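Loading example: each entry is read as two labelled lines plus one structure line.
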Amino acid sequence: NAGVTQTPKFQVLKTGQSMTLQCAQDMNHNSMYWYRQDPGMGLRLIYYSASEGTTDKGEVPNGYNVSRLNKREFSLRLESAAPSQTSVYFCASILGSTDTQYFGPGTRLTVL
Amino acid sequence: GENVEQHPSTLSVQEGDSAVIKCTYSDSASNYFPWYKQELGKRPQLIIDIRSNVGEKKDQRIAVTLNKTAKHFSLHITETQPEDSAVYFCAASTGSYIPTFGRGTSLIVHP
């Protein structure tokens, strides 16, 4: 099992550009999450999908959109990137609501 | 919603010493408390967890204790080694599909 995978690993964008971060899991998990991690701020939830076909906002959703494409895949889209979105983005998944989260390797995004 | 406070934000110890990281939570419905370790440039990974029907759990040099009455739980690392240096996150889950994380503790173990 590959676990949780993310692409790309690194990305540099110019202000105003758009991009999609891809996440996939092969553990048959029901719930998937997108977090951003900034120095001293811990892990902040952007969006989550409790189950296939549903998505909900987290703590910091502004400037982002998500798509739960199927049970395996959950993508995060930045429509018009801003320097404030420079961060490390982690995807995660859970089998049940009170189980261990498994994280992807992260995407380091820089917006110039 | 749930609120998790984690202390200290930075912890510096000498190799061989013990380290203790504490977290408090606000929602009495929380029933699952995992701890994650994140090495520099890597993803967070589970190191130990505890459920609300258990007061203490050990795994070699790592232990977690839970006090439901006081709504706090702690991570204990004994005989620390340089490879224990990392950021540690606590979290609390109520079953709402949104685990709440503490802000993390940077543990530095000096050889």
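Chain B has a mean pLDDT of 94.
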